[in-house]
């Protein structure tokens, strides 16, 4: 059974989750930058040495990125979109499994949505019925 969050639990975890997510975002941006550098090396016809060095650097960065994602998802927080800054915390509303959702820039968990709904289906927590797991 996954770790279920109440809104209070999710808000308590949020500072650490934000820190972890910021690291993931930074790592992802580095991966993209190295990919662009590799493409420039390919396009310019540079020697293999430059390509191999950058490719090894990319491999290391991708490995670190996935380790960071595993750490965040290891505490039960699911990344829905790195680019849009969307994270979901598993929870329960009465007997239904739901997601508490957070978007980068928000100060606290204020919304939830059903398992089959996305960001557009967000509803305010005030009317939830989300209960202690």
Could you walk me through the main structural features you see in this protein, from its secondary elements to its overall organization?
The protein has helices at about 5-45, 50-75; strands at about 80, 85-95, 95-105, 110-115, 125. With about 130 residues, it is of the alpha+beta class. The protein has one domain. The chain has a five-stranded antiparallel sheet with strand order 1-2-3-4-5. The radius of gyration is 19 Å and the shape is elongated.
Draw up the topology in text:
Layout: H1 7-44, H2 48-74, E1 78-81, E2 86-93, E3 96-103, E4 111-114, E5 123-124
Helix pairs in contact: 1-2
For the structure shown, list the relevant keywords.
133 residues, elongated, five-stranded antiparallel β-sheet, alpha+beta, single chain, 49% helix
Number of helices: 2
Cα(first) to Cα(last) distance is 11 Å
Question: What composes the largest sheet?
Answer: 5 strands, antiparallel
In sequence order, what are the helices and strands, one letter per element?
Answer: HHEEEEE
User: What is the SS-derived class?
Assistant: alpha+beta
Q: How many E-type strands?
A: 5
Rounded to the nearest angstrom, the radius of gyration is 19 Å
Mean pLDDT equals 91
Strand content: 15-25%
- Overall form: elongated
Oligomer: single chain
Uncertain stretches = none
Total number of distinct structural domains: 1
Please give the order of strands in the largest beta sheet.
1-2-3-4-5
């Amino acid at each position: 059974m996954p770790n279920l969050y109440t809104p209070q639990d999710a808000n308590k975890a949020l500072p650490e989750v934000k820190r972890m997510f910021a690291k993931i975002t930074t790592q992802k941006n580095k991966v993209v930058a190295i990919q662009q550098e590799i493409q420039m090396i390919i396009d310019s016809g540079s020697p293999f040495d430059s390509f191999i060095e950058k490719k090894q650097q990319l491999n290391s960065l991708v490995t670190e990125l996935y380790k960071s994602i595993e750490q965040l998802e290891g505490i039960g927080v699911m990344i829905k979109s790195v680019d849009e800054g969307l994270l979901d915390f598993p929870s329960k509303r009465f007997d239904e499994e739901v997601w508490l959702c957070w978007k980068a820039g928000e100060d606290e968990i204020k919304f939830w949505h059903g398992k089959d709904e996305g960001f557009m289906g967000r509803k305010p927590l005030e009317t939830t019925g989300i209960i202690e797991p």
